[in-house]
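Appendix B. Extra example for self-study. Work through it before the problem class; the solution is given directly after the inputs so you can check yourself.
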Amino acid sequence: MARITLENITKKYKDKAALRSLSLDVADNEFFVLFGPAGAGKTTLLKTIAGIEFPQEGLVRINGEIVNLIEPMYRNISMVFENYALYPHMSVYDNIASPMRSKLYRKEESYIKEQVARVTKMMRIDGLLDRKPSQLSNGQRQRVAIGRCLVRTPNVFLMDEPLAHLDAKLRHFMRGELKEMQSSFSSTTIYVTHDYMEAMSLADRIAVLNEGRIEQLGTSLEMYYTPRNEFVARLFGEPEINIFDGELEEREGRLCLRALGQAELMPLEDDVAHALRSGGRRRVHVGLRGGDVRFSFADKGGWIKGSVYTNEPIGHKVIMVVDVNGTQIYLVAPNDTKAEIDKPVCIDMDIRNAIFFDAESGEYIIRHDAERCCRKPGDATETRR
Amino acid sequence: MEERLESKEGSRMRKTAMSALGTFGRNLGLTLYALFALFPLVWMVICSLKSDAEMYNTVFRFTPTLTNYTAVLLGTDYFKAFFQNLAVAGGAVILTILAGVPAAYALARYDFKKKEDLAFQILSFKFAPEILVILPIFIIFQRIGLYDTYFGLIWVYQLITMPLVIWVVRGYFEEISVEVEQAAQLDGYKWFDVFFNILVPLIKPGLVASGLLAFIFAWNSFTFPLVLSGFKIQTMTITSLRYIASDTVHYGQVAVASLVAVSPEIIACLFIQKHLVRGLSFGAVKG
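Solution. Structure tokens for the complete assembly:
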């Protein structure tokens, strides 16, 4: 297994830049997740490491050795492609056996048989060995592709959305298998996904990519609790984080927040107040997760009045959208909540859990007691910088 | 109630009758078409068995004779022409595949300036009427010593065979996802191995079908060998002219010559029929 280092990688397709001077250091035996919206450059980054795309600038290192000029086959890298890239004319068995039959990585047929049996059992495709890829469903094809990747012991596993086409139950199971495999084989894995739950549950570290740049690099808890800007904040969490405008006012020596057109002021904690005062700000953007908003259908004094906009039961919880003076606030309600549309409702926001962003740039300013949220305090201060 | 049941039964009977008629009609139609399509061949077989004297009677009653066969196959150097034709057409197709498949790959995979113009230029070779270009080629060939040589004919046949193979095979290459090649490289295969182990099996149906068509076109070519070859090389299409003698046209012998001439094509078609029918299985790529 190996350490992967990228230094100032720039990759352009014609005039369009896919990666802009991107640097990254993936430690040995790390499970590293690349996360971001479509077109962010995630796949290009993987292909650059694999050596099938060539960066115009920058260095790729495997275990410190510069591999820019080394052909893909000599890099000993195993990859799952997003479109599976199975060999159409070969059976499932031959597809999975293919990496062990090449001149470079040749193994005994008996060993191949053992290994194919191992991964196909793990992927639950051991009954399909004689089928051709065209006779498989998309989920099965994807599992064959994962099998072909896992059958080797490479420098690094590159996985491009390997679970995207599996049904929810199987995806959950596979997530567990990958996590288990990661801890037992101690392998370096770089994993692309656009599913935040997958990212958070699997990753040792996550890099959020946007337009060819890394927006933030850190653990999943850091992503969730101290996102570096509004873009990252919106990517993590279901329902999406509420971000609304707030005005800062001094009242009796305390800094208070006025938001959502309410007369009532919300006093802020001292550390938050200190950070907001030092910038001399009047306006901020306030980010608040759905779980930090309480609601009541009874009239409560001091709570914010609104009306039910939508009410969406999703099994273990209900996602309710409350309209407050034209701003929609998402909140998480218990799964037995029933509410007609336009029903009056009161909400109470736990402003101590709010994340404050700069009103212009959308950059992270502060959240109250950030260290409490992230297990490693040292990392948390780093992301704040 | 009973009535309704009966009518239901009746309609079902009508339905089966209809479908039976449908099957019958379909088969009848296909049989008629087969007769129509095969008739020239059958007619040629009949002609080849007739003597010159009986040639013009239109009823299908005659005394079969093998004189035409002995005259053509034993009396003339027909087999020499047959093998020369085979050498020229086969050589042309082999050269086309050796040069055309890499060209098709390049046109499918690489991005270079004027790519589409080049591809169209190759196709346009097929647009020009042969008779229009044959005279300059004749003069050039005489100058550079390619007149009446195998290589000269094989070369000029590329005009017929190359565009076809390049355009068909290019389409097949484009259907193969580039990720399949990349996956094979990561599996540890060199480009050459990838090409022969992964790509060639996938383009095989297209390659075989277009190669066969190219072979038929080259085999049947008339204008080029008529003008560009002399006494040393004589293809079958040219040799068949010989039976139009000064005294009479020996239709029986022409029929024999033609029959022998089409036989390799028919045999080849029968052998690789499954490749002609079967398409690529695109299942391994998401879509």
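Self-check: Chain B has two domains: 2-49, 67-277. If your reasoning did not lead you there, revisit section 3.
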